[in-house]
Automatic annotation (TrEMBL):
PANTHER family for the chain: PHOSPHO-N-ACETYLMURAMOYL-PENTAPEPTIDE-TRANSFERASE, UNDECAPRENYL-PHOSPHATE ALPHA-N-ACETYLGLUCOSAMINYL 1-PHOSPHATE TRANSFERASE
Organism encoding this protein: Deinococcus irradiatisoli
Cofactor: Mg(2+)
Name of the protein in its database record: Undecaprenyl/decaprenyl-phosphate alpha-N-acetylglucosaminyl 1-phosphate transferase
Intracellular or extracellular location(s): Cell membrane
Coiled-coil boundaries: none
Amino acid sequence: MEQLRTFAQHLGIADLFGRGFWAVLLTFVTAAAITWRFIPQVRAFALRVGWADVPNERRLNTVPLPNAGGLAIFAGFVISIVVGWALRPIIIEQVNIQVLAILLGATLLVLVGFIDDQFGLTPLFRLGAQIVTAALLLVNGLRIDFNAIPFLPVLGGEVANVLSIGLTIVWVVGLTNAMNLLDGVDGVVGGVAFIASTVLLVTAAQFTDRAAAVILLAGLAGAALGYLRHNFNPSRIIMGDAGSTLFGYTLAAVSLLGTLKISVGASLLVPLLIMALPILDTTQVVVGRLARGIRNPLGHPDKTHLHHRVLARTGNARRTSVVLWIAALICGVAGMFAQGIGALTVLLTAAFIGGALWFVAARRMRAQIIEAAQTRRELN
């Protein structure tokens, strides 16, 4: 038994049989189970009321596809956080307020994203909402410290403060949009969000003062995994802007709550590596559009995203998802090694991620076979 405790401590689990570990585990399971079970009901309701993406030249679906999956993801995430909070209350008042600020900002973006999915909003309005949610984090003490970034000069006074505010807004708004722009092929964003959440969870778990970040990341990872059961190609539902912005914003915000403050030397490197895939995708898309003379690069969709490029080579949505999952996992492993996490912990984390993604993908493919057989019987 003592050997098991020691082994768990090497993985960042301070007490294998303590309340903290079980709170994290139950948060993850609750988020996954609620999202997994709730999505079929959301899908049925969405089809009745017309919450769906109609096929067009940019979309891969050939029939109207319900786009309210983000609501189920949000429900699983929030309910799981309440469960985790009840099992392990946050006793530090400032962190308590910061967690509430993150949840409030996420709620606002889910609402804006859902309205945009159904009725359409201008890019300027969406950007304004994202800046408001970033400001919500700033006023509650969540920010990037400019003077903590390595290789840059240490500045004093108001200059450093203004640069810190600017960097924080760019980080939050940038990553929120990066996850949104990456959402173009079934399963890509759900898988990338699950990988990033799990890797950041393991990274934060190495530090005793990151309990709030760990709980939030456990809920986010569980919700992503539960959603993937219904979204791996052929998808039965998509998350829409409500889901993709929820993932992007929450990952950006939680990284400010914990992992960006891990050490001066790795202040930005770790989360940048872990979330390199959506960041790289957005960067190359924006630069490409600007080079073509497009003044508003976020308001002119095209097929230059990484998922479009990979899909053109693979010719298959499933293979495209797996390729991008592997790329995201490689980035995550690099981030863990950059943080100095042990090889065994990294290996087990990668194995868990791979196994979990294989499980939900296999379940979706099995369900698709059963659905096809039922359809044939009905036609006969």
